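User: Show me a protein chain along with its predicted structure.
Assistant: Here is one chain, sequence first, then structure tokens.
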Amino acid sequence: MASENDQDTDLDATSTDAGTESDAAPIEAEAAAATKLPPEARKALTAGERLAAAKAAKATQKAAKAAARKVTEEPAQEEVEDEVQVRAEEVTSWVHDHQATIVKVLAGAAVLSAVVLGVQYFSGTSARAAGSAMSAALLIAASPVGEAEEGEVLRPGEERYADEAARDAALVAAYERVVAEQPDSDAAAWARLALGRFKLAAGEFPAARTLFEAALGGAEGNLTLRSGAIEGVAFTHEGEEAWDAAATQYERLAGLGGAYEQVAALHQARILLAKGERDTAVERLQALIETLRAEDAPALPYVRDQAELTLMTLDASLVQRSAVPNGLDSLPPEILEQLLRQQGAR
């Protein structure tokens, strides 16, 4: 048989599972005080009193720990919520302040992407058919700018330009030669698209539109060239704030089908915003984002990110950023601002 001391030790180690909470409740206050008594005094307690004392002590410890957690966790939670709110407000404010720049980058990138694809096309086997003028233009487009790197070796016919402005001037002259020498060729259509981009960047909207429309006329079945030319025409209308004319061009872009429908949807939402039709624009943007997040959606991360960023312009709480963003706009505002300055967009 266990001694009273053994029973006392066992009772001290007993958990709250040894009885129900209601069993200990009537004597909890007294038992809590009893746990602080010396061993000799504790032996005078009954087994039930010692059990209640053990339970009360453990309950007291648990209550103290819970109170400590509440004190530390609640401020932390409030701090996180405050930080998220502040960050959301900062992003919304930044995007609103830089909306014109964002649209400018979007327009330039969309048109330039078509030009780059044209460069890739003509730098292959079709460069021979395009003629020496187009080959010379492509060589200029790929030429380096700025100070030469140590040990640099240029390709035959290539030269280093002092800056991008100098290279652009040479490139414009080269594209103009392509149009003059081969006006009805595919190369001339791509050259007109590139020239239109330069005019657009300079704010010469009517001249740019003429070039884009001419490029469209020579595009035939080339969807990449057609889409770039249609976007170019639309951008010139946007530059003149002719919103309805721009919207008509984006409907034309959507008519190309496939992924061009999503690209057009983004542009159409921007036009709605420019016209003050905020609610409709929000609905279009949210629908576009959901479409592009679907598993079977076309791979258009840049369009998706632009849609999210545009929606954040209105209210950061309206959109949850994608888990793995892909566009420049996915970067923190301060980093994007630095990149825009480096690219000359600011």
